[in-house]
Amino acid sequence: MILVINSGSSSIKFKLYKKEPSQDNQTVLEGIAERITLDGILTIKYKDNRTTWNMDFQNHESAVKGILSKFQDLGVIKTIDEIVAIGFRIVNGGSITEPTIINDKVYKAIFDSIEFAPLHNPGALVAIDAFKKITPNAILVGNFDNAFHHTIPKSNFLYPLPIEWYKKYNVRKFGFHGLSYQYIVEKFAELAKENKENLNLVICHLGSGSSMACIQNGLSLDTTMGFTPLGGLMMGTRSGNIDPSILEFITKKLSMTISEVTEMLNKKSGLLGMSEISADMRDLILASAKGNDNAKLAVNKYEQTVADNIVTFVNRLPYVDAIIFTAGIGENSPENRQGIIDKIKILNVNLDQTANNEKNDSFKLISANSSAIPVYVIRTDEESMIYQNTLSFLK
């Protein structure tokens, strides 16, 4: 068995796969351990049944033990050694450019990158520590969200700041959601029967955390997220790009520290901040339909930001094979897809309303025949990408 782990400071999402690839569904089960250090809730979906247990998760190690014990109770594994490899999603691995076995050097790189991903990397490390202790015979593989973007040229990843900030402190655009982009590029190449090295794409990964990627010849040319996942597009609770002078202005007005204001930019801004209603796009679409002006403002702002970046990225490419929507909003919100495309004025891109409004499957063309650029919806699967990456180390 191969286990895929996405760990936060108080939760561990997991998905268990068969070791040997097969034609049928390779997923065995999936679930999440939540409220770690508070009390503990474990939910597992197995054979179309979803079961929840109240647990005592004092730390990540006890959560890992609880997860694995339930695997055994369900009869999925007899012994822990049946899990031969574990793939971890890690947001920032610094200069690491591909999936790799987690040895002392890689562990240090993850630790050293905490300052670039303080909300994500610590959770990954405590999960790695727990599994290393409890599953000592399993191969541990790091899969890095920023690694896909290592092909971005210096002219695109550098900020217009003193160059010594980059040379001394590595202040640069890293980019994130790389596992999703890797999956989408490979999936589109497979289904379109094209070599990924020939593909030029604009991918819109739109969810609670939103970003976009400009893909040239199958590689990342540019992306919207930057030094941290706070930069780029407006998101559920994140501001995205703003005038940096706002930070100094608000720290003085509210007598707050830079850290406190940054916390607000991360957790109380974006859709939530503008609407004063919700960070969930579904709530805002409903509120907009009922005439709530703040909800309309937030939705329109979000759609306009995505539309503007589509135009920017199309302009970077010699031609575009497809514009692709993916992730929670991108996959499931025909209203937002239509709103975004309607706000693109300079390109002859338009949707087939019937196709756009149909319930989404894993791969769907939603543009009209008259559209100058095909538009697709593709369901992303970052866990599957981690599984494939991890599986390669067993061959």
Keywords summarizing the entry:
395 residues; alpha/beta; Nucleotidyltransferase, domain 5; 2 domains; eight-stranded mixed beta sheet; six-stranded mixed beta sheet; 15 helices; 14 strands; 19% strand; Aliphatic_acid_kinase_CS
* Rg on CA atoms, Å: 21 Å
Q: Which structural category fits the helices and strands?
A: alpha/beta
Classify the fold: give the CATH topology of the largest domain. Nucleotidyltransferase, domain 5
What's the main sheet like?
8 strands, mixed
The number of distinct structural domains comes to: 2
> CATH superfamily name of the largest domain?
ATPase, nucleotide binding domain
End-to-end Cα distance: 14 Å
Assign the CATH architecture of the largest domain.
2-Layer Sandwich
Characterize the overall form: globular
* Helix content, binned percent: 25-40%
The first-level CATH class name of the largest domain: Alpha Beta
Low-confidence stretches: none
Number of separate strands: 14
What's the number of helices?
Answer: 15
Binding site for ATP: 13, 205-209, 280-282, 328-332
Binding site for substrate: 89
GO molecular function: acetate kinase activity; ATP binding; magnesium ion binding
Binding site for Mg(2+): 6, 382
Explain this structure:
Substrate binds at residue 89. Pathway: Metabolic intermediate biosynthesis; acetyl-CoA biosynthesis; acetyl-CoA from acetate: step 1/2. GO terms for molecular function: acetate kinase activity; ATP binding; magnesium ion binding. It catalyses: acetate + ATP = acetyl phosphate + ADP. The model has no long low-confidence stretch (mean pLDDT 93). Helix 1 packs across helix 3 (121-134), helix 7 (245-254) crosses helix 8 and helix 10 packs across helix 11. This protein has helices at 60-73, 104-112, 121-134, 154-157, 163-169, 178-191, 245-254, 258-267, 270-275, 281-289, 293-316, 327-332, 334-342, 353-357, 382-391; strands at 2-7, 12-17, 27-34, 41-46, 49-54, 85-90, 100-101, 139-144, 201-205, 211-216, 219-223, 322-326, 363-365, 375-378. It contains 15 helices and 14 strands.
